[in-house]
Amino acid sequence: MGVGSQDAIKQFQAFIDQVEEPLRTTFQNVHQGFVTATLMRFLKARDWDPYKAQKMLVDCLNWRVQNEIDNILSKPIVPADLYRAVRDSQLIGLSGYSREGLPVFAIGVGLSTFDKASVHYYVQSHIQINEYRERIVLPSASEKQGRPITTCIKVLDMTGLKLSALNQIKLLTIISSIDDLNYPEKTNTYYIVNAPYIFSACWKVVKPLLQERTRRKIQVLPGCGRDELLTIMDYSSLPHFCRREGSGSSRHSESGSENCYSLDHPFHQGLYNHIKQQARLREAVEPIKQGSFHVDFPVPPDDEVEIAKTIESELHKFENGNDV
Fold this sequence. Notes:
By secondary structure, the protein is an alpha/beta fold. It is built from twelve helices and five strands. Helices cover 49% and strands 9% of the residues. Residues 79-239 form the CRAL-TRIO domain. This is CRAL-TRIO domain-containing protein.
């Protein structure tokens, strides 16, 4: 770390020390005891400009306060059948850990349909997984490793990606914007597997639009990526769709305890039980309102809007050419 970076951290630290309530309290849920690492994440996201990083962090803290993000882990998606429907159509889960101790999140990009609930439920679910990762998963991994674990690995399965993805671009842009603006630099590496031709065509035009630090994080692996991923994690941590060459992915291709998307998987059981427990504690203070937890959607950054338009344009080319 250079002198300029150290000066930026000191300047940022001096600024954050002056932040008052209620921003100070919500910042504790952001840093989880790792203040310097958190400041570095926001600085990296703004190319080490302390003034831009300060604005980004303050905007994030205000978003958290205005939308009661600190309480989102006490807001269950009920009934359980609705939550199961969300899980079956928004495919994401924790498959295990890398050998360095980083959580491995699997995401079924191609087979996620997002068609079983309103947009607000999917956004609520996504933020709950983010907050559970920040407050429970990463602190637990840090304790186990005896050192700070503040980032994760994501394995993106493109099996099933097709033109229907056009219907998901708006929602995915909302989720991506929430992550970029409020959970910056939380992913160490993105591994893309089972990529069909339609992805490869889109990737060629999208890749040049990405910032360099983002491009460096993305690795497109051949096939299901099993052999490459086994260099950084044990077989037991591989997402189920990476476990045998040519197996592809499925919502129910493995039993509930092995398919990390499933509500029956230990990760989702732990998350769901945690939310129910927090809801019971909160219910002793005030009644729990039923229905989705509405969150203000951020305005996507210009670069994300451009990327979304580019993807949409490429998919329309396929649609018009009947290539898929």
